[in-house]
Structures are given as structure tokens and as C-alpha cells.
Amino acid sequence: MDSTPSPSSASPFDMVSGALGRYMPGEGAAEAGSADQQDDSAARPRAEADPAPGRPEQILGAVSLDQDLRITRCNLNAPVFAGVEAVTGKPFVDLLPPWDVPTVTRRLRQVLETGEPHVARVQRLRRGDGSELVVSMSILAAAAPQEGLTVSLIAMARRLHLYAAETAIGTSLDVGETAQSLAESLLAWGDVTAIDLDFAVWTGEVVTGQPQERIRLRRAALVPDRAWPDGYVTPGDDLPGDASRLLSRAVLRDDAAQALVIPDRKAIERVLGSPRLVRALVPGDQAAAVACIPLVLDGAPPVVLGVAEVWRRADRPFEDSELFDLQELVARTSHHVDLARQHQREHTQVLALQRRLLPRSGGDTIETASVYQPATPDSAGVGGDWVNSFPLPDGRTALVVGDVVGHGLGAAATMGQLSMEARALLSAGLAPDEVLEHLDETVSLLDDAESGLAAGYSALGSTCCIAVYDPVSHHVALASAGHLPPVLMPPGGPARPVAVRTHPGLGAEFALREPYEVHAFAAPPGSLLALYTDGLVEDPALSIDEGIARLADAVSTVHPWDALQQAARRVVSALAPAHRRDDVTLLLARMIGYRKGDTATWRLPARGDAAARARTLVSALLGQWRIRADTQDKVLLVVDELVANAVRFAGGPLTVRLIRTGHGLLCEVGDTGNGRPRLGRGGLLDDGGRGLHVVHGLTTRWGVRWTDNGKVVWASVER
């Protein structure tokens, strides 16, 4: 019977330790068991005892750690680990060079906290005689119910070393992390390694074959992580201009990128030429040799992305075989650096577009605050979340939030198109449900290959929620296409999700489409409305309803006198996970509305004397408001023309509303007609349409919005 523990019950240490027999002879493996087992165990020593010259076999070891990072068990019996003194009860970091302790400790703690493994880190271990062993180190969390970590160590052949290093370097699309991984891998050949990248690579800009004197280098990575003296260039710092030119000239000899080795301290000081550059580039008094290897992007002509520097002590001169390995590793991984640069560029472009879509201000009748946090660098890229709030010409305010499927430039392009289209349609007076119908058609059109607009990206299933706040009636009209429900906190609280009927996302199949509905609800002054995207409330450990309930609880803690932007940040920090796979977006809107004394509404029958009656009522109110005489004349003419048009071309009853805004007066006349007033090109004797020309000349803006039973024509007059 096979006594090997099942994967569900075996710890990582047991599995790694159990695999050691494949790579090394067990001390008692041949003493018990069948003859077949004895033959097999006898064959392994012979295979390992006579490896090919210069090509040692891969050797595997395992160390188990507790939560204090102390050694509890170890299996380092292979000859290659001789001198590595792994003692039970001692801290694991005692096996490391002192300058590696902070970085490795941080990695160990990170795996303890998150459970996510850290794989294939090129690391050096100290032997008792002062020599060092290069290994590939992987850190795994212990399997439940056990606690702690398992660290697997592989002493590798040169080919496997290069392969493991390249694999580790290619795991991130972040420029800084990619450079850091390359620096950590190069540390196997030196005491200190640094990666200096062209500024264009660091910022994600287009890299070209620039003249040497224009190259600007910035330090992207430096290992080990320790305290450095003042004046030494650390990650994020720009190299001095003369140092950048010096390094670029050193690796670009005869217009071809080449490795450069400076073998001793005197030669280094002679090449650098000044104490200032020595302090900036040389990592300490013991550094006596350096190898500079260019990161070259293949092309015609080749483009140098930066320079990798490997520093050594005087007792460790560089050998030709080591320089070959260094050049091979850097050559293999240069394209990873360029991929990270391209990702950074796309990330920056999409982020700039999203920032541009964020609300600027909410106007006089509503206060808004928004928070946008892009996904963490290890995600697939910036997503298509967007929010917007803007005042409509008729005095209302629109609040829009959407989530476009996918990441990157395709999602960003669709996001920008939908955002601008929604704003244009809402400003034209369309209701939220009508706007969603148009957005649904747009998404379907963008995904229609026959239309010629498809470009390898599909936005089907994108979501959107539109809310329009009326500051006079203190009501919100809301429609949603597959989006999560907003959260409303009325004055006095508590906050609760708004009951919105669920609809499919934008671009759904025709059979699934239903007419979008408008949900209207009261939002008295002081109410707080939260619109958001799913990245804020999604948590693998919770249902989506529980996530929304957590958001409602967080919104309930916002005090009416709290600064809204600070409150928004506080809500996001309370809910957003540390390692996000999706963007986090929140829009908070605090309703203010107009004061009761700043608005007046009258209902009039659609009769011939309606215009005269409206002028009388409006004139009396303007007198109470102490409006200037010239402005009163303009308002009375506008009201007269709008009411006369409604009586002549529409039907009744009529609704006349006057609003005193911060900068002017807003006149509204509602009727039951469905015809759209238009400015005509009538002649001098043509009476039709002349009323709208009068309105057009007296106002700053005018327009139409549609209602369930007719329309409202509005016009704005400056005070």
C-alpha cells in the first residue's frame, strides 16, 4: 500500500522533503525495502557521483519555519549544502548575508500574511567557512492546520540558474518590479547590483535611438536593501548628467552596445574622474570592480534601454565565463523590461483619461466628491471604471457611473465614448432610461464586426447607472443597466441600497432586452447618495450583498458636517482590499437643493390670457427678490413668449416655474405637447417662430427636456 500522504493532508515541507530522494541518496534508503528499491537507490548515487565536468546536478533542500521565522525542521543533507548551518530554533535569516536580511524578511512576512507563494528568488546562503552558495529560493505557506512557512532551496546548474532567473523576472508588468527582479537575479554574481534605466523607459515613453549626450538615466533598482551613504544614487533618483553620459558612452562604443568591465578601484576612480561621481555610483569602499552590461532592445538599430551594474570586492575578480553568463541573462530579460515599459505607457494613458472624466464640481445645489484607485500593478492593467457628475443646463445635476468590460486602451476608448455620449444626451434633455437605450445601441454597434468598428475588443456586458437630481422637487430619477444599486442615506440615516430593478448590461442579446425603467425617489436636502463600481464591494470571502451592506454601514458613519472628499477617502480605505484585481471607484453626492424662497411654481390654464396672468405673477415675485429693472424686463419678455408658444402649439394645463440661481434666473414653462420648438429661418413678415428668436436673443441658454406627460422649455437669464 502506498503510504505517501495525499495532497490535502501533506504539508509543503513533507512534499518537498519527500521529493529529495529523486535528487540525492537517502541515508537509509537502501537498507530496507525490496530489491528493486535497493537497485534504484544504488543507481542514484552512481548518477550523482559522476556528473559531467562543470555541470553539477540540481539539488533540492527544504527548511520549515514557524511564525517567528525560526527553523523548526530542515532537510539539507545533500553534499552541496555542506557548511550551511541550519540549526533548529535559530532564525532563518542567520543563513543569509547581512545585506539581504531586510528584503528576505519582508518576503517571508508577506507570504505569512497573504498566503501567496514567492517563487524562484535567486538568493545566496552563507557557509560556515565564509563562502557563499547560490540557490533558487521559493517560499510557501504551510498547509492548514499547520502554521508557518516552508522554504525550498535549489542549488542549480548554470543553465537552470539562468532559466529560473528569467522566469522570475518575467512575472510582473511593473517597470520597478521587473528591474528589481533583474537586480536580485544578478546579485548571484556580485555583492551589489543596480539597474539604471533610460528615463523614457521608467516613465513609459517611446524609446528611440537618442544621441548619447541626451540620454538621461534614473536608478530603477538597487540590491541589497540597506542604508546607503549620503550622495549615493538610490532607486527613484536621477543619475548626475555627466554620470549618465559616461555610462552611455561606456556601453555604446562604435555605436554598438557592449559590456564593460573596470577591474580595480584605481581604474574606477580614474574613469569616473571626480569624487562626486565616485560617491554617487560606487557602493562603498570595498567595491573594487564593476561590470556594466547594457540592456539592449533588438531592432534596427538596436536601442539601449539602460545599464545593469554588478559590483564586486577586490578578492573576487570577474572571470570570462561569468561575464558570458551576465550578458546572457541581461540579453534574455531586456524584452521583459520593454514589455513593462509598454504596459506602463498604456497604464499612464488610460489613467490620464480616467482622471479627465472625474467630476470637477457639483454646482450650487449639490456637493460631490470622488475617489478612483486603479488596480494594483500585478493586475491585468487599468480597467474601464468611470464616474462623472455635471450640472445640466436646466439646473439639474447628472450623476453617472459605469464599468466597461476589460482593461487597457480598448476599455479606455469605450469608456470615453460612452461617458461623452451620456453627457451629450443628458444635456439635450433626454431622460436616464432613454440615455441608456442609446448607450445600449452604441455598445452593440461597437461589437458588430459587419459595421467595421470592431477592433479585437468587446464591451458587451458593460454596466452603467445614471441619476438626475432635481434641486427644486428634491427628487432623483435613476436608471440602471446591470449596475450595482446606489446607496442612499437620508438625513438622520441609516444608509440603505436603493431598490432598483435589475436589467442586463449594455449590449445584451435582443431576446434579453427590456425597456429600461426610471426609478424616482425623494432625496431631501442633506441626503447622501453613493454610486460606485464593483471593485469597492467585491470580496472573495463575502457575497455581493454583504459587500453592499458593508458599504452602507460605512456611508452611515459620514456626519453631515464632514468634509465630503475626506469622507469618501475614509469609506474607500475601510472597504477596498489591499491587493486589488479591479479598479475601485466611488462617487459621493450630498444633496443641497434650492431654498424654498428661491423658487416659485404656478399652474395656469392654457387660455388666451395665460401669458398676461404669468407676467403679473412673475413681476410681483421679481419685485420681492429685488431684481434689477433691466433684468426684470428680459424675464417678463421670455416668460411671455414661452407661455404664448405653449398656448398656441401645445396644450394645458401649463406649469410656470421661476428659480433664482447663484448667477441668474431660470424660467421654465411646462406643457402637455410633444412637439420640439425650433428656431426657424422665417422672413421679415413671417410670424411663425419669431418668439423663439426673441428668447434666443435675451437668454444665455435655452432648451427642452422631456417628461412623462409632455415637455418643459427652459431659459436662463443672467442677473
Fold topology:
Blueprint: H1 12-18, H2 35-49, E1 59-65, E2 71-75, H3 101-114, E3 118-126, E4 132-141, E5 149-155, H4 158-169, H5 175-186, E6 192-198, H6 199-203, E7 217-223, H7 241-251, E8 252-253, E9 256-257, E10 260-262, H8 265-272, H9 275-281, E11 287-297, E12 303-313, H10 320-357, E13 366-373, E14 383-391, E15 397-407, H11 408-427, H12 432-446, E16 463-470, E17 475-481, E18 487-489, E19 496-497, E20 519-522, E21 528-532, H13 544-556, H14 564-575, E22 584-591, E23 599-604, H15 610-624, H16 629-649, E24 654-660, E25 664-671, H17 690-698, E26 701-707, E27 710-718
Antiparallel strand pairs: 1-2, 1-5, 3-4, 4-5, 6-7, 6-12, 8-9, 10-11, 11-12, 13-22, 14-15, 15-16, 16-17, 17-20, 18-19, 18-21, 21-22, 23-24, 24-25, 25-27, 26-27
- Could you describe the largest sheet, including whether it forms a barrel? 5 strands, antiparallel
- What class would the helix/strand composition place it in? alpha+beta
Enumerate the spans where pLDDT stays under 50 for 5 or more consecutive residues. 1-9, 21-56, 449-455, 683-688
Number of strands: 27
So how many helices?
17
Helix content: 25-40%
Averaged pLDDT, please?
78
Taken as a percent bin, the fraction of beta residues is 25-35%
Q: What oligomeric assembly is this protein in? A: single chain
User: Radius of gyration, rounded?
Assistant: 35 Å
N- and C-termini, Cα separation: 94 Å
Instruction: Please give the order of strands in the largest beta sheet.
Output: 2-1-5-4-3
Describe the structure concisely for a colleague:
The protein has about 725 residues and is α+β, with helices and mostly antiparallel strands. It is elongated.
